[in-house]
Amino acid sequence: MPRDIDVVFLGKVQNERRRTLTRVVEEARSLGVEVRVVDRDCWGEKRTTLLNRTKIMLHLHNFPWDTPWQRWMIAGANGAMVVSEPLSLPDPLVPGIHYAEAPIEKMAAALRQIGEDETARLFAVEVARMLPTEGETV
Questions:
Q1: Which pLDDT tens digit goes with each residue over 88-133?
Q2: 86 preceded by cis ω (within 30°)?
Q3: What is the pTM of this model?
Q4: Which residues pair with 36 in a beta bridge?
Q5: From CA 102, how far away is CA 42, in angstroms rounded?
Q6: Which of 10, 47, 106, 112 has minimal Cβ neighbours within 10 Å of its Cβ?
Q7: Terminal CA-to-CA distance of the chain, rounded, Å?
Q8: CA distances from 51 to 29, 38, 42, 73 (A)
């Protein structure tokens, strides 16, 4: 499928930490990056199709220690790269290799930069895919 969706955020916006999503979406749009927010009814084949059309899956923490590994695996399996706020304990993932991270104030610029560098995005997706099965970091 063509990757015609720049960025997807999957999840509910339910607390102050996730409300920063509005800020990130507005800043990204001002830089020419479209962010699609999907906060309901996206499971199974529908989610697979969405992620197969997506370049980047945006992750924002529910809590500072939040690391939703399932989200990383689903994104990688479908060819989308994860961009996240910095993780407190990223191991076994390596920032800049398996995913990209940026603080909220730099998130929109990071989304734009990654969206424009298809080679780096594809590399990150491939090494993230290898991690669960081969334990490889690079």
A1: 888 888 899 989 999 999 999 999 999 999 999 999 999 888 876 6
A2: no
A3: 0.89
A4: 8
A5: 26
A6: 106
A7: 27
A8: 20, 11, 10, 12
Length of the chain: 138
42-67 pLDDT, tens digit each: 888 999 999 999 999 999 987 767 77
CB-based contact 127:96 (threshold 8 Å): no
Write phi, then psi, for 69 (nearest 5 degrees): -55, -35
Q: In this structure, what token pair is assigned to residue 128?
A: 């993230």
Q: Each residue of 1-19: pLDDT tens digit?
A: 799 999 999 988 777 766 7
* CA angle 49–52–54, rounded 5-degree value: 110
Q: At what angle do helices 104-116 and 16-30 cross, to 10 degrees?
A: 50
DSSP assignment of the chain equals: ----EEEEEES---SHHHHHHHHHHHHHHHTT--EEEE-SS--HHHHHHHHHTEEEEEE--SSTT---HHHHHHHHHTTPEEEESPPSS-TTS-BTTTBEE--HHHHHHHHHHHHH-HHHHHHHHHHHHHHHHH----
Task: Indicate the residue type of 88.
Answer: S
